[in-house]
Amino acid sequence: MATSLDNRIHHKRGSRQWFLGHFWTTVTWVIALFLFSPVLWMVITSFKREGSAYTDPPTLIFHPTLNEYSQVFSSGSGAGGAGAPFEHSLVVTVASVALVLLLGIPAAYALSIRPIKRWRDALFFFLATKMLPYVAAIVPIYLIAEHLGLLDNVIALIILYTGFNLPLAVWMIRSFLLEVPREVLEAARIDGAGLRTELMRVIFPMVLPGIAATALICVIFTWNEFFFAYFLTAFNAQTVPVFLSHFQSTEGEYWALLAAAATISCLPVILAGWIAQKQLVRGLSLGALK
Amino acid sequence: MLYQGKKMTGWARSRLVATGLAAVTVAAVPVVQAQSSAASSKAHVASTTIKIAIESNSNMQNIETLTPEFEKLYPGIHVEYDSLNENNERALVETDITTHANEFNAVMISNYETPMWAKNGWLVNLTPALTADKSYQINDLLKPIRDSLSYKNNLYGVPFYGESSMVYYRKSLFKAAGLTMPLHPTWRQIEADAAKLNNPSKGVAGICLRGQNGWGENLAVLDTAINTGGGSWFNDSWKPQLTSPADEAAVKMYVNLVRKYGESGASQDGFTQCEALFGEGKTAMWYDATVAAGLIATSYPKVSADTGYAYAPTGSASGAKGVPSGWLYTWSLSIPKGAPNQAATLKWLEWATGKQYIAYSGPKIGWANIDPGTRYSTYALPQYKAAAKAFAAITLASIGAAKPNDPTNPGVKVPYTGVQFVDEPWFINLGTEVSNNISAAIAGTESVTQALATSQAEATQTVKQAGLLK
Amino acid sequence: MSDLVDSTNQLEVGRGDVVSATHGPTSKKDGHLRRKAWIRRLPLLPALIYMVIVTQAPFVVTLWYSFRGWNTETPGSNKFVGFASYSAVLSDPAFRSAAVVTIEMTASAAIISMLLGSAMAILINRTFMGRGVVRTMLITPFLVMPVATALLFGTTIYDPYFGLLNWILSPFGVNHVNWVGLYSMPSVVAVLVWEWAPFMMLIVLAGLQSESLESLEAARVDGANAFKTFVWITLPHLRQYIELGLLLGSIYIVQAFGEIFILTDGGGGNGSATTNLPFYIYNKVFNAFDFSQAAAAGVIVVIATEIVATVTLRLLSGLFRATEVMS
């Protein structure tokens, strides 16, 4: 009954619906293209020569060149080559995200599946540390790093970035663990599964996508961090954002070179994000907060 | 070939794709080569590595590319550079030195920091070593520059390049408007010419002047106008003078000039942006550092032949005569006290600022482009005289005329040293605040009177805190 | 911090007992219970200790220097001065202005990002041609390195002569507008919104996708139109997602530094219109070289942040009711 009524209404509204549908699709596309245009412009500019990057009105049609890209990788571009910073960023990101997961997964477990007494206090503590104004700590961190001989050392960044991302990771992994149905756990326990089996066979496979989402978000924030990398590194630990900031040169405008460097710098994270977008949706909602 | 705007045809599109593909294959080769050469240079093991913090300007980029020559001369020494933009290089270097982190073997600072840091005992005295090495010819260094890097007659930094300020103008535009630029212009003449040459509909501004916030950005240029207009930062008993009639008149003249006849968006423009605008033919005049002369000559073929050069403008807004107003600045190299490997660092310092580096770099980077303003002998080199004949004499004479100990008009006495800065440790903070206000006045979000009133209050608070004013 | 922990403590004691009683051991031996409790706590400890060290060690050093008068430009100034640095910071008009700027910047960027992000989420929560491509385009700004964003907006977008924005708006009579100079705060906020709207979109999208189809269907059968359904069913359901998005977004936006550092260097407008608290502290360290005043400002900001955090976390009751239900 209800369905047939529904169908009739649908039929009546058919053309209007069709029109509205296309209208909203168009609106969505326009907004998406508008918001995407800065990225597109960055990529377009990166294939220009300097002469056509810096024109009034902006040049749309030009002979694309990879000239600027090879400049970015050669060490004569005034910022050293891109190779070493990429290595440093890779080391820092992999090490720090691994450490975050290593510390975060057990902590999240202790706050969800077998919660400790004061799980709520601990959770609040983690979120509160995330709110600390970290710029305020630059002087002590600089002095401590100097004292420990960790200036211009990737280890200093790994320690710091782990601290930045751990609170968020604990929150996220915890919410994914909470999604594991209680019945599944009960069943496993009745079957006499030990803790290890419970963890490895039951829980881990179920939360693996969630852990991947967490790792991805930590990778984004770690790869992109600028402030501490800028003030704590120089030669041996310079990361990609710091390398990129050197293209804000004091003499001469090099927009095409800047765009090429920016495109290369952003590429790993953009690709990772594109590939794992479904995880991003789930991950950022802290496991949908159910 | 360059297609502009929306005039894309089917033919153009297919051509575009074809050349694009070609470009991909061609350009991929140098990328691979660059990577392999980077790898091989890394394999080279050197016994001593010296690390140097430098400011990222094109002259320093040149020395980076020429450094293999140094490493060939001294096979035991490997040099690494950390190039940063001006404000942050200074910030990092000072933090490094004051906390004795000793991350750097040598640092690039300027005549602003060198005497103060020498006084604080943070830098190595270079005079004994450099006088001992006769080949360095310490007396060949320009005297005003040498003095500005000295403390108690000892040298604590060696100049990498030195500069004053001068006016650049487009000869063809002046000719077309029936104007002539005198060798020694006054601010009133500059203003009148800018008014006539300003042509926004053609996208050409009358003049490009720095408006960007930063003590070394808009304040550097503005200070020279204040000095020659009879104003100053402080009077002889440290009372701030920013709201005095002379200061206010000079600032109003500068702000009105750039707002009325200057480039759009001047409040965001520093040296870099003006360099690009002048180089792209977007402005008829530009008043800035003398070091830009070499850049225009080598990097901007569009305007280089058409560029004329004149001394820094003088006089007040009302037309009163003023002192020669070029500033005095040098990017110099110093060794922090306590830094390791000082002997090796000294070798590099001597090489980078020595006579033979200039002779060596000339053919490699273009004679007009060599590091100017450091040695008398540079200005006697026939190749340099030929390449830079239009501006070398102006640079040398302007540096010679700058008087950091007595920067303002006769009769105006000041308690501080410095032409385009006040050589006191608290100046950076005050200068940053004042330059923010000036930048706002140039953007038009604040009046000059307001901006100066705020600045005066900040200056008063600063000197009171420093215990200079009761 | 301690205030926050203590007050929630009292609420939780009872609950915690229940939890451990249900899953707890049958043995009644005290020692055994205590050992069990420690085994339970064990997995949490490494992370907890790590965070305590990483956040508290710098804080202790900050506290120490905040009572000294260390200005690196003045040799010999590194000695105990009591509360002098605190009074200098609190009486500094620039500090108060930075506090106001921080609130304005964070609130406007977070709220606009949320509005825009919600709109985007609603638009792509339909099936239409190219949905995947559109979603990919919309999330990209969040993935772009903030340094790259700031550099590219500052040059290729905002430049009054060669920028994209002036060119796009030129048919509407916009002529060489100096965006960053004249509208510095909106310019920075626009960049922040561009970066964070996708983040908000993702969170709201998760909310929309978790909405039960039955309740929507029921509303439709009851004769509610799309608008009413949205206001009465969808919006209340989205509330906790919106709260979460605003909370997480603000945590990051309040710390904005790179965008300001590269775009305006703290200037614009009335002199320091874009100097927020992080930038103020940065200036104290790297322009004034007054480590102690920077430390004092840092301590004040930490205390203020904790007060705001406590209040906010309590206000967002929905967030925690939700987590409570689960355990």
Number of helices of chain C: 16
Report strand % of chain A: under 5%
* Overall average residue pLDDT of chain A: 83
Q: Give the N-terminus to C-terminus distance of chain C in angstroms.
A: 24 Å
Segments of chain A where pLDDT lies below 50 for 5+ residues? 1-6
Order of helices and strands of chain C: HHHHHHHHHHHHHHHH
Rounded average pLDDT of chain C: 82
Shape of chain A: globular
Name the CATH homologous superfamily of the largest domain in chain A: MetI-like
Q: Report the helical percentage of chain C.
A: over 70%
Structural class of chain A: mainly alpha
Overall CATH class of the largest domain in chain A: Mainly Alpha
Q: Can you describe this structure?
A:
Chain A is mostly helical and 290 residues long. Helices cover 73% and strands 0% of the residues of chain A. Chain A folds into 2 domains: 2-69, no CATH class; 77-289, MetI-like (MetI-like fold, Orthogonal Bundle), CATH 1.10.3720.10. The longest helix of chain A has 45 residues, at 2-46. Chain A is globular, with a radius of gyration of 25 Å. In chain A, 58% of the residues are buried. In chain B, helix 10 packs across helix 18 and helix 18 packs antiparallel against helix 19 (448-465). Mean pLDDT of chain B is 87; it is low at 1-46. Chain B has 2 domains: 42-156 and 329-387, D-Maltodextrin-Binding Protein, domain 2, CATH 3.40.190.10; 165-327 and 402-465, Periplasmic binding protein-like II (D-Maltodextrin-Binding Protein, domain 2, 3-Layer(aba) Sandwich). In chain B, the strands form 3 sheets. A 5-stranded mixed sheet of chain B has the order 2-1-3-10-6. A 3-stranded antiparallel sheet of chain B has the order 8-7-9. Chain B is globular. Chain B has helices at 10-43, 58-73, 86-98, 113-119, 127-132, 143-148, 171-176, 187-197, 218-228, 245-261, 271-279, 292-299, 301-304, 342-353, 355-365, 382-387, 392-401, 427-443, 448-465, and strands at 48-55, 77-84, 106-110, 150-151, 154-155, 158-163, 165-170, 285-289, 307-311, 329-334. Chain B is of the alpha+beta class. Chain C is mostly helical and 327 residues long. Chain C has one domain (92-326): Orthogonal Bundle (MetI-like fold). The model of chain C is unreliable at 1-27 and 321-327 (pLDDT under 50).
